[in-house]
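User: Structure tokens for this complex, please. No commentary.
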Amino acid sequence: MRVGFIGTGEIAAAMVEGLSGRGHELIISERNAEIAAGLAGRFSDVQVKSNAEVVAGSDVVFLCLMAGVARDVLGALPWRSDQAVISVMVDVPLADLAVLCAPASDIALTIPLSSVATGASVLPCHPDSDALRALFGESDTIIAVPTEAGLNAHFAASALSAPLLNLMQTGAQWLGEQTGDPNGAEIYVAGVFAGFLRQMSLQGADFEQLLNGLATEGGLNATLKQQMADAGAPDALREGLEGLKGRLKL
Ligand SMILES: NC(=O)c1ccc[n+]([C@@H]2O[C@H](COP(=O)([O-])OP(=O)(O)OC[C@H]3O[C@@H](n4cnc5c(N)ncnc54)[C@H](OP(=O)(O)O)[C@@H]3O)[C@@H](O)[C@H]2O)c1
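Assistant:
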């Protein structure tokens, strides 16, 4: 497939890395110039072209711009009705994309994270997209979300990433201070959570089951969990998610 990317930044680079070597022609836009040159240097199936050439030469186009830029540039590009468009952008609803990318009408929203570079990531999408499934269905898990509001709620949930990684980093830093081995501390903390997540995917365990397994009364886990609850951490997280609802029109 000829797969184009408008906006060559963080998330486009991760998708290009994930798709490279799988028999596609990957056509990326010139900005950011340094990232584009880096990708073209690393992967022989990547070409760098202008925005208009990306659209003209692609069967599927990923939109990876910031919302304000998208509103300025997309309308002038040579869209066709026979191509699929997949936006990864927050704050640009499908109705706006239908106008900006007309006459293309096979338009979907998805939410890749940087782990799409290595596969086994989760890609919620709305509406369901044959193009997204054809490109990532074998390497990643596609979750079709029935409504656009539901997809936007996944955008909010994707923002759990930074605060939860930050908590893990804080724990790893603390461990490193005790052991004098910060690298080993990161490996340990990451490994603990990788193990739980593997258990969830391989054994179908859910969060409740894992928490029950850690709930021994007076145990270290129960003690720390209670202390964080008393300090308001879960409430702060829920409040933060609620705070995103206005922007995401939920
Ligand atoms: N990062 C994530 O984990 C993530 C996850 C899910 C969704 N998203 C969404 O992905 C979109 C991009 O995010 P990002 O983190 O990848 O941001 P980013 O790294 O800033 O990428 C945006 C890219 O757009 C380029 N650009 C600016 N003006 C352009 C133009 N006129 N034509 C072509 N390209 C232009 C920028 O180039 P310059 O550097 O030269 O300005 C930059 O490379 C956002 O809408 C965000 O909501 C991001």
